[in-house]
User: What shape does this take?
Amino acid sequence: MMRRVLLIVAALSVAWLAGCASSEKPKPTPLEPLTPQIGGRVVWNQRIEAMQFPLSVAVSPGVFTVAASDGTVLALEADTGRELWRGSAASKLSAGVGSDGRFAAVVTREGDLVTLEAGRVLWRKPLSMRVNTAPLVAGERVFVLGGDRTVHAFDALDGSKLWSVQRPGDPLTLAQGGVLAAFKDTLLAGQGSRLAGFDPLNGELRWEVTVGSPRGTNEVERLADLVAPPARVGDVVCVRSFQAAVGCVNAERGTLSWTKPVGGTDGVAADEQLVFGADASDRLTAWKTPSGDVAWQTEKFLYRGLSAPLSTPRAVVFGDAEGIIHFLSKDKGETLLRLSTDGSPIATAPVVSGSTMLVVTRNGGLYAVRPE
Assistant: This one.
């Protein structure tokens, strides 16, 4: 019970600090005039209920799976926006959706893990814990990262619990989506400022690497949880430690490649050359993937409320608090294209399936974009 109280206090404290920061934040930097350097357009859009939880969008071949705050779960054909199926968890959600294309899993505010297949609820399992991170569905298993950093594995077919691992951690944890991902035959999970690799069959810890060093004078300021989304480039996984660092880990060997102390609250994107991210003031930085050295920085988006980024072959893409999608050159950070949505903040990092990119706004707008 005490741990649950502390977790709630953490959520309230972070929300209070965020509110104070937003009230004191300078006005967003005006956007410079732009002559588009590449083509791109919105090819379809849909709408779901407004987002009130740490959002994620699940991507499987040719399919985007999204979930709304009211419990609606929706699978859309990536190329056309055609609805493939629709289901409901029958309760409001606390985190986004995870899906492998067959099964989709969400967690309700009451702490129930709900797994669906083709829109039909297969099973419902009480977790008795807070969850802010979307479940991971892989290998006919559903993995859950609890707000207390415990990791749980369930059989996707019937919901039977396979294993659970509780790691020692700080009394306060971040009320934001964390890192939970698959790497080859290893399950990756963020546990505080550490990235841990587990055997997905039995939960055995294979390795763990510290990415960020918590800083501050109190426990709220020292929150340094790894935040979503992570970025994978071959054997390397790059992550952000909340308000502490950006770093890359060789997930094959379980070793730290590099880490750089830098503030920031959202995840990163990467390719073989560069890792991209925005700090707490929305200063954009590109670090060299092999070394962590700074390749370039730009301050032309300061205080615009940038989302986590997406790296595509032609550009790095951010959304902002005014619902604008920014396409930037990867070598210099120059603006190549802007596209508008519904004027509400972009709620999460853009995702891509094939040639179609999806952005989701806080008001529930789904905008599929195709660069040309």
